[in-house]
Amino acid sequence: MSVEQKSLKQIMDHRLEKLNSLIKDGVDPYPAKFKPTHFSQSIKLNYEELKGKNVVVAGRIRALRKMGKASFFRISDNEGDIQIFIKKDDLGDAIYGYFKLLDIGDFVGIEGSVFTTKTGEISIHTINLTILAKSIRPLPIVKEKDGVLYDSFSDKEQRYRNRHLDLLLNPEVKNTFFKRAKIIKSIRKFLDDKQFLEVETPVLQPLYGGANARPFVTHHNSLDQTLYMRIADELYLKRLIIGGIDRVYEIGKDFRNEGMDRNHNPEFTMLEFYCAYMDYEDCMDLVENLIKNAAKEVNALVINVDGREVDLNMTFHRKKFMELLTEKLGYDFNDISEDQLKVICHEKGIELEDNANFGQMLDALMGNFIEPTLIEPTFIIDYPKVISPLAKMHRDGDKNLVERFELFIGGSEFANSFSELNDPIDQRSRLEDQAALRELGDDEAQVLDENFIQAMECGMPPTGGVGIGIDRLIMLLTGNRWIKDVILFPTLKQESP
């Protein structure tokens, strides 16, 4: 047993002794209920009104200075923390004796009067103390001096694995998730106010579709059937448009069996919305206003991206896919063969898989040379048809382009949108092309969903559709650079025993 393990065992054994002492004295260390009347920050904000009055508060002990007949300690609740003063003469030997058995990490309920100490700190003078939960395992020790934290719980991997401790010991983390909730709430209100209906579609699907990605596969025992975790909400939401619900949206979990990096987690939150009688240009306006509205909600209209100030209140740029590549790399990408494209990728140092197709090469060039440079909000519009199997052909007649945009801010993608393809014959043909790519080894190419095609054959109105990665948007608006920092419980590799 290591020194650390031995020390931890000794601490826990000592706390168990205290717990047993409380139980022996007839104290329930884990009561079922306690009702606070006030919270820490509210008491501080309303001090003049509450001064000298009794309040009831509850929280976790975060600091403890045990003295002889009088002591100070600090508790934290959902709003912040507040100092507690406790005196033996006010409580009697028994209750003050119970106080002596408390440790940092324990939960207590306090009844007492609000006052200010000689040093000017708003505090509560205890007249009654209730033990609400005895902590057996000690919290990591964090020291604070002059507002600076020392020995903080800072190891990223351990913080993700022990999010409960991360939230307790790093207040800015809790603030991130409060902001996350506000942002998602603002998105819901934005769409609700525009008469969109929030819906729920299947997470377990007999076929997966709506994106180019590898799925997670499972098996339903009762049906004896393979099912897939959804990679996108798109195909089911379009069926609702076909069914006569003209404006729909869903905020939910999608799952993609792909690599993990700063911007990708296998389980992530997506917003998708679809609106009949709109196109991708209408969707650009909606997305721009939605993001500005969310940013305003958390005071993040001006953000810092890698040292550069970005004003989200600006009019977002709109630039064409092929023109950006042509300007950057000096080739005419509107008239280029697959062999020429392969040579260009080789010259530019792009590593390709042996079976890389035309669309994958274009996408690789865009991802390497254009996307990282798009710091200010920029819509890339008019994508190649070959990498957009669900988008409508461009209305200007160019058969190689579709009406699609992606939004980039700070070099990362935040939204993807189409004037949705509603020609079932064209849709079948494109999904058959995707199936052919799968046969050639592209395991991220889309599958042909016959039920979806049959739904489209019933008639689908002109429709605009959008997908927005919620986690990435939260990263942008809270100043976090890693997706794991905005997901409460991110996917992690299991630790060795």
Strand order of the largest sheet: 8-12-13-20-19-18-17-16
Backbone CA Rg: 29 Å
Work out the helicity level. 25-40%
Poorly predicted residue ranges: none
- What structural class do helix, strand and pairing data support? alpha+beta
Described by the principal axes of the CA atoms, the overall outline is elongated
Q: Which percent band covers the strand fraction?
A: 25-35%
Please, what is the CATH homologous superfamily of the largest domain? Bira Bifunctional Protein, Domain 2
Annotation, overall tally of beta strands = 20
C-alpha termini separation: 15 Å
Count every helix, treating DSSP H or I runs of 4 or more residues as helices: 16
Q: The biggest beta sheet, please? A: 8 strands, mixed
CATH architecture of the largest domain: 2-Layer Sandwich
Q: What average pLDDT do the residues reach?
A: 92
So what's the CATH class of the largest domain?
Answer: Alpha Beta
Number of domain units: 2
Q: Which fold name is given in CATH as the topology of the largest domain?
A: BirA Bifunctional Protein, domain 2
Descriptive terms for the model:
497 residues; alpha+beta; OB fold (Dihydrolipoamide Acetyltransferase, E2P); BirA Bifunctional Protein, domain 2; eight-stranded mixed sheet; five-stranded mixed beta barrel; 20 strands; 34% helix; elongated
Describe the protein in words.
By secondary structure, this protein is of the alpha+beta class. It folds into two domains: 3-139, Beta Barrel (OB fold (Dihydrolipoamide Acetyltransferase, E2P)); 172-316 and 376-485, 2-Layer Sandwich (BirA Bifunctional Protein, domain 2). The protein has 16 helices and 20 strands. The strands form five sheets. The protein has an eight-stranded mixed β-sheet with strand order 8-12-13-20-19-18-17-16, sandwiched between helices. Strands 1-2-3-5-4 form a five-stranded mixed barrel. A hairpin with a 2-residue loop joins strand 6 and strand 7 (148-150). Helix 14 (424-439) packs antiparallel against helix 15 (450-457). The chain is elongated, with a radius of gyration of 29 Å. The model has no long low-confidence stretch (mean pLDDT 92).
